[in-house]
Amino acid sequence: MKNIDTVAIVGTGLIGGSIALALKKKKLCRRIIGVCLHKKSLAAARKMKAVDTASLSLEAIKDAELVILATPVSVILRLAPKISGIIKRDCLVFDVGSTKASIVRKLSGIFPHFVGTHPLAGSEKRGVANAKADLFQGSLCLITPAPGTDKNALSKVRSFWRALEAKTVIMSPARHDQILGFVSHLSHLSAFALIHSIPNQFLKFSPCSLKEATRVAGSDSELWADIMLDNRVNVLKAVSSLQKNLAAIKKTLAGNDRAELARILLKAKIKRGSLK
Amino acid sequence: MKNIDTVAIVGTGLIGGSIALALKKKKLCRRIIGVCLHKKSLAAARKMKAVDTASLSLEAIKDAELVILATPVSVILRLAPKISGIIKRDCLVFDVGSTKASIVRKLSGIFPHFVGTHPLAGSEKRGVANAKADLFQGSLCLITPAPGTDKNALSKVRSFWRALEAKTVIMSPARHDQILGFVSHLSHLSAFALIHSIPNQFLKFSPCSLKEATRVAGSDSELWADIMLDNRVNVLKAVSSLQKNLAAIKKTLAGNDRAELARILLKAKIKRGSLK
User: Fold this and answer.
1) Binary contact (B120, A271; C-beta < 8 A)
2) Chain B residues touching residue A124 (CB < 8 angstroms)
3) Candidate from B121, B214, B229 with C-beta closest to A261
4) Which of A44, A272, B104, B181 has the fewest CB atoms within 10 Å, counting from its CB?
5) How far does the CA of residue B255 sit from the closest CA of chain A (Å)?
6) A118 phi/psi in degrees, rounded to 5
7) If contacts are CB pairs under 8 Å, which of residues 157-176 in chain B contact chain A?
8) Cβ <8 Å between A220 and B269
9) How many pairs of residues across A and B have Cβ atoms under 8 Å apart?
């Protein structure tokens, strides 16, 4: 990646903060401007020396060559028109939102050099306090160009993520949302439903397996309401698939069908074993 | 716990092996006899010095003062009558099976000094190779006497688990199975169903959250078919509860009801946060 002079990060939380720390560590730019709507978050980013300039105002990003949008999905969609009136016409812009179809559709029409990306490196923990320079090292970053995406911008953004040691995969926004609806959004939804299913008075007997299975139910509810609704068509399909599989197992229990139950569980074990 | 001369462990897998290692480390008995139906497992237990004598035959346990049944649930139920014909009349017997009602019902009628127990310290990894002396340290062990359980045996078994540094809780077998149906069996069942719901071609994009949510789907299928069928009445209730909660979330997605979805997710986050 060619060195950049000024990078602006809008949203200095876990992902935005980790990008900033990685850029600093690898000396990939001269100056980082952090913008965040939350004073506390900004102060933390400044204290951690993740950013050189911290501002509550979007005006601060006007001279950036690269703008990274790292707020929740609905905030990206809301701020984009305002940002386009502030930054330079030739500014490169990419986002790190968890859904891609609606963001790429809207932002491609707003910014001439926009690329959608999604680093698969989140956590149920939010905020710059949990940020780390090596968050993306060895992780997967999905890059989701639209047919009209500027090829030069795409190449630069891919180099950016590779410089942060992420493995990049290019796919369409629609394909991204379909895949993530299953591999990420469904397992979050399932964790939310699972924890609701445990009677309160039984919680104190929770073994490690339940704690682990429901860890992501501790994720931010507003962020996840955003993600699930933005990708609702795919998430609805994924939930239906889970409901079908639950019903199949339930049927073997109701019918005391040991052979079929063991067959389903063995197939699950083999499939789970194939996950790297 | 008063020192014991000879302890026999039937089933030298993860739990049986870990008990053996803990007894050795804490010098709580003079001699450990390990019995297992699998040659490999026995050889491994001998190699790890978990047992002093390793045998494929139940006859080896005849002189034990304490017999610990650490095989899968169905094997415990199957071997109990045979074992009762081999051991001494005053021998103390306890099991570590994952379900309790059927085991306690049957074994209380077979052994005069029997106590049901369930250490909540398993893993999706099986076998003595994964055993460790501190597996039970700080963990919870549920002890499930029946109305007719010998009080002296109960007290000895409780001391045994406390000597291994487990926290013990006494409850009825029925209550145990009801609680475990939710806090353990349901989250396993949900993991099995979740991994089945992910299209194969999407698996390579699995983020950490999915790997974690489905870790226990890698558990032994025969063992879990046993557990779920033995506790099917409670597991069926637990699955119904999960289905109800999934349907509630699905409804908010279908109806694009952000307020209700965010409310459900926030309640889940708070509930998950209450897990120690």
Assistant:
1) no
2) 209
3) B229
4) A44
5) 10
6) -150, 95
7) 169
8) yes
9) 272
Q: What are phi and psi of A139, to 5 degrees?
A: -85, 175
- Tell me which residue of B212, B221, B34, B54 sits closest to B126, measured CA to CA: B221
pLDDT: is A177 or B45 the higher one?
A177
**Cβ neighbours of B204 in A, within 8 Å:** 276
Two tokens at A168? 């990049």
Could you tell me the CA-to-CA distances from A110 to A80, A91, A93, A99, A113 in Å, in that order?
7, 12, 10, 18, 9
The one-character DSSP state at B146 is: -
Find out whether A203 and B240 touch, Cβ atoms under 8 Å.
no
Tokens of B2: 């008063």
Looking at the complex, does the CB of residue B138 fall below 8 Å from at least one CB of chain A? no
Instruction: Report the DSSP beta bridge partners of residue B33.
Output: B8, B53
User: What does the buried/exposed string (b/e) look like for A33-42 if buried means 16 or more CB atoms within 10 Å of the residue's CB?
Assistant: bbbbeeeebb
Rounded distance between C-alpha atoms, residue A139 and residue B195, angstroms: 21
Residue B178 token pair: 């009801």
- Give, as one character, the DSSP assignment of residue A8: E
Which has the closest alpha carbon to B213: A178, A126, A275, A190?
A: A190
List the pLDDT tens digit at each of the 276 positions of chain B: 677 999 999 999 999 999 999 999 999 999 999 999 888 888 898 899 999 999 999 999 999 999 999 999 999 999 999 999 999 999 999 999 999 999 999 999 999 999 999 999 876 677 888 899 999 999 999 999 999 999 999 999 999 999 999 999 999 999 999 999 999 999 999 999 999 999 999 999 999 899 999 999 999 999 999 999 999 999 999 999 999 999 999 999 999 999 999 999 999 999 999 987
What residue in B sits closest to A274 (Cα-Cα)?
Answer: B203
CA distance B74 to B186: 19
Say what the ipTM of the complex is.
Answer: 0.91
Residue type, B245: N
Place of tokens 């409804």: B251
| Contact call for B262 and A221, based on CB within 8 A | yes
∠ CA B135-B140-B142, rounded to 5° = 120
- The whole-model pTM stands at 0.91
Q: Which two tokens stand for residue A117?
A: 């990306």
Is there a contact between B192 and A276 if contact means CB atoms under 8 Å apart? no
Residue A107, SS3 per DSSP? helix
- Using the structure block, give the residue that is written with the tokens 């590779």: A162
Give the pLDDT of residue B214. Answer: 96
